[in-house]
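Today's session is about reading a structure prediction critically. Students often jump straight to the picture, but the first step is always the sequence itself: look for stretches that repeat, for charged clusters, for runs of hydrophobic residues. Only then move on to the predicted structure, which in these notes is written as discrete structure tokens rather than atom positions. Here is the chain we will use throughout the hour.
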Amino acid sequence: MAYENIVKGYSLNDQYVVLEDDDFDKAAPEKSKIIEIAEFIDEGAVNSIYYEMPYYAEPEKNGSKAYCLLRDALKESGKAGLGSFVLRTKESLCLIKTEGNVIIVNRIRFAQEIRKHTDLNIPETATKPAELKMAISLIDQLTGNFDISKYKDTYSEKLMQIIEDKSKGKVKDAPKMKVVQSKATDLMAQLKASLSVSHKKAS
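Below is the predicted structure for this chain, in token form.
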């Protein structure tokens, strides 16, 4: 089908409504480079489920003083700005926070974009106190300080190596995935096995 014969449409009540370019223009908010702050909230008030994409923000030449003032005020108060901006003709909700001497604009989702969990099949099985104590014990043993630098994107590195090898005419067979059968048949058995190994190593 030729490109000029392709139209955009929306299925509504068993019929398709054809949309023109000006229909999208009518729905799109006014384009602007300005981030409008609606209110200030506690920095930890927004659940991580709403976070979508962070951006670094820098001031224009005549906005340096205001930028530094907002940054320092947010840092001192422990607050974050809740506002909106336009990205690719679409209005986005955002959370404005600080990281060091930089203001970060975190694009966040609207409430209607989050799927309700009420339709999920969540078990109501009660946890036994002994099982809970054992699970917490394992968590305590594996608890450490957060250091994101310890975690690497090995997939991208390996993919780039494959690209470089192929450019030189080297082709390697894909490794076969091995399925390892675990002796532990359930979570409790795994927890007991993990705690047992930890105790042996410590002794």
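Discussion point for the tutorial: Residues 137 and 143 are 10 Å apart (CA to CA).
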